[in-house]
């Protein structure tokens, strides 16, 4: 069985960013095909923790995260489905004075990007959140951050994409991709050939394969967060919780289940399937109880993991290829792409349609991993407007 | 496996299959570890009362008292040859190790060879009133009697779709309980038509006939071909209403109902082990595939008993022994070929019997098809059949794991053990496809809930 599809834009990957791009491009009048090796939203988009936060991000991500936050505000209406977006606020906890100093530095730096954080000392944080454990010595609160249900978001984007006329092919794996005189020819499993003018590489933990095929190998490694969920409990964890160091995170959904995580799961040789690791789950329970002792009697009903792609500098690759005109990358979200997904779709569509985007994406260029990128041919006209000074603060 | 030390062999489940397996392994000079959730061996079928509340085996197990006594005594007889680990949950299986939660907290145990004898539980289908307090499964009604010496109520109605029904009716009558109704939702015809196949195990048929006659004499004949059932009550069970074969409505006051619709294999560990599963069209469920000797698709994992397809207690004992012999053989040790041949003949007879039994008690498709839109299918998460049907169509869901992701059905405490098969029936019917086409829920650890505080021990 063989089939040929000819489209303006081919997208490898069926996660939130890929599907959001597909919707935007289709609505702009282009024909679009999405190729997903499993089912849409089954990868990192669908099995992540569900944090919709700006606090704690690398500062260079904040302009994108700010723009995405606006999209989250209207996401239910946009998708026609309830994605359970809950502006619970996100609180980042300090467990030492050094942690608190880090939170203070970050709050100061983030203000320049329009992110207002409230610093709380030990007395204030325990007064506001009396269920926190004694280990907590202070906190930084981002009241406009929150959480959403990742299992719903990806599939909802996939349904919207289909409704607007995007061709979505699931259980279909990209076998090879090459340039032609007019664009790309993509061979996929099941005898499918897609020819396109543009190609978007948003295939998550497998994105280095396509990048390498076009001469841009990247040090992308699998990231597999180890996560757990309890039975429903009376609602009391009123803020989504993170910590300095990132070794534990906790949130409770309104219906009662407490979701928490920390540590890393196991992943297979193909970087496709992940499984939780028991020692990591048990360590996660211990760390979580230090933060929220009231969870002692709660029962864990499920643990899971999923595969995301991680870059050495923990920020994604977003933007045009440095070798191949018409090729765009969006991957390596390093465990915090859920909040960004909607805006990445918009940015990708802008790059395809206009050759440029209003968001400052230079820090995410793939060239930062390519030694001779400066000499490589570049797709004409792609520049990012830099609204803010590039900055990088470790936290 | 380390060639210089003896192989680490673990058997999970201390029911008839697991107990026969460890006995066979011990006789072959191996020292198996036997892990079981219960305090005392026996499994569900030969469950023992708590120590100190013992009653005569005859009272508890009837005709099977001899088998029960033999199995209960096995571990005492084997002594130090078996490392028995009671009250221990295997909550995860990863690669070649098991994660345990026992009296001393968490522990990880590696294995070179593993026998999974994880048993079965009742198959549940929703019907009006099924979540009311006072509604139990038939299995639970039996456990209350065997383990606690109590009935589930004073006026008890029992409903079933399998051979467990006449047995529980008999046990309840014998215990002096008032059984106000005994309803079989499967028709009588197939039982008569399959009598020759059933006679592959004449002793078992004789027992069934005996139970039926005793129930008859006690004034509690089982009514077959029941079309629909409904439990009524305000906050708890007050009555059972049903529609008989002729379409007549009946209603009888009661304070407890035991109802289930056959059995389902508890195969979560085989799933986590990565064993290949196949759909068994007769019992309408996914089971881990295995050879007649009990070898799974994974070289170091063996399957025996109801956890690998419903076969009953007698078949489970045979399978436990056969799988253990396969394991011994695979270790390159000698086995008694005559014994293997005897077991395979007996197992073949059991398979013929089981095929006839399943035909005699066909899956009650009419009960599954009648699940109303307002009926809760997933009681952990409170998800109704109507939600499942709407999601199947409006959100184009064709597969169980996607249904779970979008509706939370199967995402709660039971992880789909209770609702999974019913949800698959609802999804398949809504999509107009065969039930096997919607697949099965993938397992995740823990296979049963574990308290967060266990990590602090």
Shape of chain B: globular
Per CATH, the architecture of the largest domain in chain A is 3-Layer(bba) Sandwich
* Rounded mean pLDDT score of chain B: 94
Mean pLDDT of chain A: 92
Instruction: Tell me roughly what share of residues is in helical segments of chain A.
Output: 25-40%
Largest sheet of chain B: 5 strands, parallel
Strand order of the largest sheet of chain B: 3-2-1-7-19
* CATH level-two architecture of the largest domain in chain B: 3-Layer(bba) Sandwich
**Protein chains sharing the most extensive interface:** A-B, 33 and 27 residues
Q: What's the number of structural domains of chain A?
A: 2
Report the uncertain regions of chain B: none
Termini Cα gap of chain B = 31 Å
User: Would you state the CATH class of the largest domain in chain A?
Assistant: Alpha Beta
Radius of gyration of chain A: 21 Å
Q: What is the strand content of chain B?
A: 15-25%
Structural class given helices, strands, pairing of chain A? alpha+beta
Number of domains of chain B: 3
If you consult CATH, what is the topology of the largest domain in chain B?
FAD/NAD(P)-binding domain
Briefly note the CATH topology name of the largest domain in chain A.
Answer: FAD/NAD(P)-binding domain
CATH class of the largest domain in chain B: Alpha Beta
């Amino acid at each position: 069985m063989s089939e040929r599809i000819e489209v303006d834009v081919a997208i490898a990957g069926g996660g939130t960013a890929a599907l959001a791009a597909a919707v935007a491009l289709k609505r702009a009048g282009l024909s679009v095909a999405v190729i997903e090796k499993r089912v849409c939203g089954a990868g990192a988009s669908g099995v992540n923790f569900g944090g919709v936060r700006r606090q704690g991000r690398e500062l260079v991500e904040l302009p994108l995260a700010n723009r995405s936050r606006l999209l989250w505000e209207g996401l239910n209406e946009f998708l026609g489905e309830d994605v359970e977006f809950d502006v619970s606020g996100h609180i980042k906890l300090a467990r030492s004075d050094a942690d608190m100093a880090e939170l203070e530095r970050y709050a100061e730096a983030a203000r320049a990007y329009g992110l207002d954080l409230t610093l709380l000392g030990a007395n204030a944080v325990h007064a506001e959140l009396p269920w926190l454990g004694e280990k907590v010595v202070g906190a930084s609160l981002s009241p406009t951050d929150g959480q959403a249900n990742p299992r719903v978001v990806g599939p909802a984007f996939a349904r919207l994409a289909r409704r607007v006329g995007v061709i979505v092919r699931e259980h279909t794996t990209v076998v090879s991709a090459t340039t032609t005189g007019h664009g790309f020819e993509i061979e996929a499993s099941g005898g499918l050939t897609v020819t396109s003018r543009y190609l978007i590489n948003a295939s998550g933990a497998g994105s280095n394969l396509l990048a390498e095929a076009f001469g841009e190998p990247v040090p992308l490694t699998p990231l597999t967060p180890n996560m757990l969920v309890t039975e429903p409990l009376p609602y009391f964890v009123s803020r989504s919780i993170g910590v300095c160091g990132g070794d534990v995170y906790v949130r409770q959904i309104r219906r009662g289940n407490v979701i928490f995580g920390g540590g890393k799961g196991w992943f297979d040789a193909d970087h496709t399937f992940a499984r939780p690791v028991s020692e990591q789950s048990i360590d996660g329970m211990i760390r979580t109880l230090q933060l929220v002792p009231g969870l002692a009697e709660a029962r864990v009903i499920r643990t899971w993991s999923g595969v995301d792609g991680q870059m050495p500098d923990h920020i994604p690759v977003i933007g045009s290829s440095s070798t191949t005109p018409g090729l765009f990358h969006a991957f390596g979200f390093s465990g915090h792409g859920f909040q960004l997904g909607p805006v990445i779709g918009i940015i990708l569509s802008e790059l395809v349609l206009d050759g440029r985007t209003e968001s400052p994406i230079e820090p995410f260029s793939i060239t930062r991993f390519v030694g001779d990128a400066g000499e490589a041919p570049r797709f004409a006209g792609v520049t990012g407007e830099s609204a803010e000074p590039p900055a990088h603060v470790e936290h | 496996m380390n060639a210089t030390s003896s192989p680490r062999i673990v058997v999970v489940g201390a029911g008839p299959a697991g107990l026969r397996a460890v006995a066979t392994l011990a006789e072959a000079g191996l020292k198996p570890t036997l892990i079981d959730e219960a305090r005392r061996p026996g499994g569900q079928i030969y469950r023992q009362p708590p120590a100190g509340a013992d009653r005569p085996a005859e009272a508890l197990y009837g005709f099977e008292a001899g088998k029960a006594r033999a199995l209960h005594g096995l571990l005492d007889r084997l002594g130090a040859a078996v490392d028995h680990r009671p009250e221990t949950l295997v909550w995860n299986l990863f690669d070649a190790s098991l994660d345990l939660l026992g009296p001393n907290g968490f522990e990880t145990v590696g294995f070179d060879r593993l026998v999974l004898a994880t048993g079965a539980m009742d198959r549940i289908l929703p019907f009006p009133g099924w979540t009311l307090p006072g509604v139990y499964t038939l299995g639970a009604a039996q456990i209350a009697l065997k383990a606690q010496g109590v009935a589930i109520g004073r006026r008890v109605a029992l409903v079933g779709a399998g051979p467990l029904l006449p047995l529980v009716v008999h046990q309840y009558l014998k215990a002096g309980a008032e059984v106000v109704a005994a309803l079989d939702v499967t028709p009588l015809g197939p039982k008569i038509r399959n009598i020759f196949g059933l006679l592959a195990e004449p002793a078992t048929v004789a027992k069934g006939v005996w139970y039926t006659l005793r129930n008859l004499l006690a004034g509690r004949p089982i009514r077959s071909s029941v079309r629909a059932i409904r439990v009524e009550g305000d906050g708890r069970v007050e009555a059972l209403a049903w529609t008989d074969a002729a379409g007549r409505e009946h209603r009888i006051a009661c304070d407890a109902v035991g109802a289930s619709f056959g059995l389902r294999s508890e195969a979560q560990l085989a799933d986590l082990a990565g064993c290949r599963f196949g759909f068994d069209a007769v019992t309408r469920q996914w089971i881990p595939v295995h050879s007649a000797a009990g070898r799974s698709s994974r070289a170091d994992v063996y399957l025996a008993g109801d956890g690998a397809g419903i076969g009953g207690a007698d078949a489970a004992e045979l399978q436990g022994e056969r799988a253990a012999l396969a394991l011994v053989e695979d270790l390159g040790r000698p086995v008694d070929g005559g014994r293997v041949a005897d077991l395979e003949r007996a197992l073949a007879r059991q398979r013929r019997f089981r095929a006839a039994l399943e035909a005699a008690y066909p899956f009650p498709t009419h009960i599954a098809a009648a699940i109303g839109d307002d009926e809760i299918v997933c009681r952990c998460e409170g998800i109704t059949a109507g939600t499942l049907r709407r999601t199947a169509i409006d959100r184009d869901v064709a597969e169980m794991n996607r249904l779970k992701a979008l509706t939370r059905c199967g995402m709660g405490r039971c992880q789909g053990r209770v609702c999974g098969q019913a949800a698959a029936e609802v999804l398949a019917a809504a999509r107009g496809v065969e039930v096997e086409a919607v697949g099965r829920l993938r397992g995740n650890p823990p296979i049963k809930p574990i308290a967060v505080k266990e990590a602090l021990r």
